[in-house]
Amino acid sequence: MSLVPPLAVFDGENLGHGDHVVLSEVHLTFHPGERIALLGASGAGKSTLLSALRQRLGKQAAWCPQHHGLVPELAVYHNIYMGRLEQHSGLANLWNLLRPLAAPWQDIATLCQLLGLEGLMKRPVGQLSGGQRQRVAIGRALYQQRSVFLGDEPVASVDPHQAVELLQVIHERHQGCVIALHQHRLALTHFDRVWGLDKGRVVLDAPSTELSLDTLDALYPSAGAATKTTMDIEQTAPWPQDSLPCPRGQA
Amino acid sequence: MAATPISELALQDHPPRLLAGKSPGMRLARHTLTLIALALLVLPFADLHVLSRAPWGELGRIAQGLVLPHFGSVESPLSAIGLTVAVALWGTLAGMIMGFPLALVFSRSRFVRAGCAFVRAIHELFWALLFLQVFGLSALTALAALAIPYAGIFAKVYAEILEQTPTAARDALPEGTGRLSRFVYTELPLAFAQLAAYTRYRFECALRSSVLLGFVGLPTLGYQLESAFREGRYFEAGAVMWLFYLLIASLPWWAHRRLVPLLALSSLFLLGPWPDIDASLVWRFVSQDIWPQPLLAGDINGLIDWLREIPELLPVIANTLLLGLLGSVGALLVALTLWPLASHHFGNRLTQVAGKGLLIFLRSTPELMLAFVFLLLLGPSLLPAWLALALHNGALIAFLVARHADNLKLDMVGLPASGKLGYQLLPRVYPGMLALLYYRAEVILRESAILGMLGIATLGYVIDDYFQTLMFDVAFLLLLITAGLNILVDAGARRLRPKGIQPS
Questions:
Q1: Is residue A249 part of a domain?
Q2: How far is A129 from chain B (nearest CA, A)?
């Protein structure tokens, strides 16, 4: 297709941790500039494939892990700063904990504005909502300023409208990405290609223009349904009804 | 299997025999009964005589002293409280400063692990006896006695806490991040709340230990307590006890996080007296006094003679182990009996408050203090020591178990108390209770040894004796034996502990 060499090629390899194979016989090629959506039920091997890609791409790839991997005790500023921890000396990093360095503070303030986190830079991440944490995790990956973005469900806990906004920011700032998600519609509208996994195998590798929503829903009936129900629950009941704040209240 | 006729299945399906079966509940029940049987088996070897003629009258007078304390008769209570707090605070801080760097290399250095196990295995009071010989009755003796074992404890516990921090944040860091940066940005903030909570708990322990240092002559609260009790001034003893309980109960207010720096600085002036350190004397103690002369001279035959001159040690070692086993089993039985009293699943509001109060009272009173009182009542046999160990440790375990049970929500409502206990709660809390007991076994053995200082025939008795007769070489050997015993029991408890249970 293109004359530029691919970023990563899997040529019938088995992927996993140690001796334990999670994904077998993977045939996939990741070309520069490609925006790839990674679909699959939980446990299908998405995280394994992403961490293998992260290992291959090394310093080219920014990384946004599943469940964020943030430090709740530290402020938003420090969590985003962690994206470039390796570029400063240990002492500078230590000092930055006590008094934020001027240049990173400016950069991160701009980034926070872009992500809708303005005014929250000094707040501990533990006090943020799920959606805000998601943005901090994306902010940390953006702050790395790498050419490729790898994300393990980075837009899982925001509403569809915000997800679109965040994906646009990610696309603008990177030449290509591989992003795991379960919103089928987004996979078709905002990505060039779709990789699909099922039970430890690659079952789909096609341009998004050749796919339809019905094909994807047929492939992953439970994933679509599951997202829907979670969101329904979140809208109707913000907390489980049976857990009273005071356990003695029931006795 | 599918082809088996139903009648045949019904024939095979008779109920299991008593205590048979592989379920965790039956396994733990058999384990517990074996422990109790073992304790009953060794019971005849323990000296449990009541040697006092009128224990009840004495108990009445002590109770009267507790109910009607006479605060006016306590001599300079403020300076005793001040010194108690200052020693506890600076002992903990010094232990923390030494223990924290050790925690960072703990998992990688066998040498550090062994060193920490050794200093932990010797009780604070034994360290105090040792330092007393070099630094006299001074603040330095008190601080070193707390700081050294605490450094070993902090190193181990901090290392465990840091090891258990979630790795997600660390894995998300860009590659090439230095070790210092990784530590201060991920591991330390993630573990900080737990590290602080454990340090707080240790400070509470340090307060108790600081009081106990009074028993070897340092002028903390324990000094007044011991002399008042010994001379039968129970109204004064009662007043000191109340001061101690108030000090512990008001801990959340006066030892607030924000007040600690101020408290540390101001209590620095309360520490004292400071000793005149004669370096040559210290060196002589370390290099000569605590080692047997024949060993230093390289005289093997002399060393054998030296060992022969030490009177029989086996009885005191056996007594220490016996007391450790009886104390552990006793603590288990006490915990099993007492925990429902403090749980909100049983009784009414009044019994719950009273039960919780009783547990806090027993848990806050150090074993040595309990044993001291029981000793006055019952005379110097193993009985007062056993009671003290069982009650204090049992109450401590019961308190934690009750808290665990209170966090559980019962699915079935309207069960009678026995059903709730037997079918709903005990199966869930018992594994944790047993795990706590096995963790505690090491502490119980350390206490068994130290209780000898009160005149009970365990290792502490002979150690105290040799220090008093200035035979430091024998005393030091005995300290080494005590530490070795403790490390062995700790390793044994770890092995014997039923697999797959965690304290909760």
A1: no
A2: 18
Selected for mutation to probe chain A from B173, B179, B183, B185 (highest A CB count within 10 Å) is B185
Backbone phi, then psi, for A88, in 5-degree steps? -120, 160
Give the model's pLDDT for residue B376: 85
CATH topology of domain B66-278: MetI-like fold (1.10.3720)
Give the span between the Cα atoms of A218 and A213, in whole angstroms: 8
Q: Which of B26, B28, B161 is nearest to B432 (CA)?
A: B28
Q: How far is CA B75 from the centre of its chain?
A: 29
Give domain status of residue A248, yes or no. no
Distances (CA, A) of B372 to A204, B377, B393: 77, 9, 16
Alpha carbon distance B356, B349 (integer Å)? 11
The Cα–Cα gap between A204 and B178 comes to 40
Residue B178's CB: how many other CB atoms inside 10 A? Answer: 14
Helix (H, G, I), strand (E, B) or coil at A37: strand
Q: For all residues of chain A together, what is the average pLDDT?
A: 81
Residue A108 CA to its chain's centroid (Å): 19
**Token pair for B395:** 């109450």
Where are the CATH 1.10.3720.10 domain residues in chain B?
24-51+290-496, 66-278
Cross-chain residue pair A73–B193, CB shorter than 8 Å: yes
| Residue A182 resides in a domain | yes
Instruction: State the CB neighbour count (10 A cutoff) for residue B299.
Output: 14
DSSP-derived pairing of the beta strands A35-39 and A177-180? parallel
Q: Name the interface residues of B facing A (CB cutoff 8 Å).
A: 168-169, 171-182, 184-186, 189-190, 192-193, 344, 406-407, 409
A68 touching chain B per CB within 8 A: yes
| Confidence (pLDDT) at A3 | 67
A224-239 pLDDT, tens digit each:
444 443 443 333 333 3
Residue A43 has what pLDDT? Answer: 76
Residue A94, domain member (yes or no) = yes
Q: How far apart are CA B321 and CA A49, in angstroms?
A: 56
Q: How many other C-beta atoms lie within 10 A of the C-beta of residue A5?
A: 8
Chain B nearest-CA distance from A99, in A, is 14
ipTM associated with this complex: 0.79
Q: Is B194 helix (H, G, I), strand (E, B) or coil?
A: helix
Q: Which CATH architecture has domain B24-51+290-496?
A: Orthogonal Bundle (1.10)
pLDDT tens digits, B317-351: 999 999 999 999 999 999 999 999 999 889 899 99
| Predicted TM-score of the model (pTM) | 0.83
Q: In the structure encoding, which two tokens stand for residue B81, read together? A: 């409280």
User: What one-character DSSP code corresponds to residue B107?
Assistant: T
Digit-coded pLDDT (tens) for B220-231: 999 999 999 888
The per-residue pLDDT for range B272-307, each reduced to its tens digit, is 788 888 888 889 888 888 898 888 888 888 888 888
Per the structure, the complete domain to which residue A113 belongs is given by 8-65+73-238
B216, B128 contact by CB (below 8 A): yes
User: What percent of chain B lies above the pLDDT cut of 90?
Assistant: 55
Smallest CA–CA separation between B74 and chain A, in Å? Answer: 43
Q: To 10 degrees, what angle do helices B426-450 and B472-496 make?
A: 170
C-alpha A36/C-alpha A197 separation (Å) is 13
Q: Which CATH number do you get for residue A15?
A: 3.40.50.300
Q: Which of A135, A31, A3, A159 is nearest to A80 (CA)?
A: A135
Structural domain count of chain A? 1
